[in-house]
Amino acid sequence: MKFDTIIIGGGLSGLVAGNYLVRHGQRCVIISSGQSALHFSSGSLDLLNFLPDGTAVSHPSTSVAQLVAQAPAHPYAKLGVVKFNELTAKAERLMEEWGIQLEGSALKNHYRVTPMGTLKPTWLTLKEYAVAESENSLPWKKVAIFNVAGFLDFYTQFVVDEFRKWGTECESHLIHLPALENLRKNPSEMRSVNIARLFDQTENLDLLALDLQREAGDVEVILLPAVLGITQTGTLKYLCQKTGKEIRVLPTLPPSVPGIRTQQRLRKCFQDQGGVYMLGDTVLRAEKEQDRVVRLYSYNHGDIPFVAENVILASGSYFSQGLVAAPDRVYEPIFDLDVDFVAHRNQWYDLNVFARQPYHGFGVKTTADFRGLYRGQMLKNVYVAGALLEGFNPIKEGCGGGVSVLTALYVAEQILSK
Ligand SMILES: Cc1cc2nc3c(=O)[nH]c(=O)nc-3n(C[C@H](O)[C@H](O)[C@H](O)COP(=O)(O)OP(=O)(O)OC[C@H]3O[C@@H](n4cnc5c(N)ncnc54)[C@H](O)[C@@H]3O)c2cc1C
Question: Would the CB of 29 count as within 6 Å of ligand 1?
Fold first, then answer.
């Protein structure tokens, strides 16, 4: 099977690169084993919340210069300040064009509400979510929070307690609908995705609207767990029209309904433009000739090789098995690319789980233009993007989404410029 570019991994990074390349006329395949981090997403993409030295960041587009000085191996340092700013603006525009409705800007972080009701800085948030401009106040004085009775992945009381600390009047309510009774018979069925499927049916949404109208009172906004719109778009808009109220959602524990919808939307957009998406297949190995990868082999396709001019490796970090931690080493399993890690396992982690964990910064070493290295030699047609890159800490720096999107766009641009 011949393509212009083969992309390994169908998470945020692979999908962004794929959409950009097919939009510019490339014939691309995305091969993806399975779920990605988007299925667990908060609904926000973080760009830069803290510098490596722990300084809080409120204006990523200006603070990135300090990051470049502090962390030369960071993916943003490889991009450089000018490219970072160019790509953030491009990403904001492209996401909109691909049908992902987001609010926010790289010029200034805004704040998302966590499942615990606290506020965290972030770059872009799906428009349906509740957000705040300030880190210590909410935009509403009076809100009503509803939860589905029996839904255990959303803890209303934590949120209520936090909101009251900021002086926002907040009442919680339970939703009881006949359609939910069947789910409730088996507590393990009471998950966000199953609830969302029920609310994708108009008759259930109409009953929910009546419930909300009856119970909410004169609040400025109704807040619901993010269990709306798994197969349908426009569910929240419909509910707002029906109730005549502003309604926003709050993140639940995983799986993330809006994250799954984002994944599906990006995948559809890619396929609509002619991209080939192979879900449930795993790339197992590669054959090289000199400094190029010439054939890839996957689990489902056995001896039939995938052939392309370029390969983008966007297989994620440990979570997606793009990086594998063995007792004595951290390795990249497809190409055995060079990985930056420290030799002694007891230096991989800090016993204080809240401390900066060295293993979070391990990752695939690349050239300045994100080409993979094999035993110190550049592989000319293998580009690396996203969570498996070396040199950044997505948790301590709050930059996971940004690294994935910006490096994906960057490598796609490199391929097109050849
Ligand atoms: C649980 C979790 C939640 C997160 N939530 C957020 C968030 O809310 N906001 C934020 O900014 N960042 C978040 N992050 C950081 C996250 O890493 C990035 O935001 C981003 O989504 C990662 O995208 P990716 O495409 O690089 O990797 P992934 O999303 O991990 O995708 C990699 C894909 O590659 C596939 N794959 C792996 N190996 C192979 C193979 N051999 N063959 C074929 N396919 C393969 C996997 O199945 C997977 O689909 C989260 C990370 C995790 C782990």
Answer: no
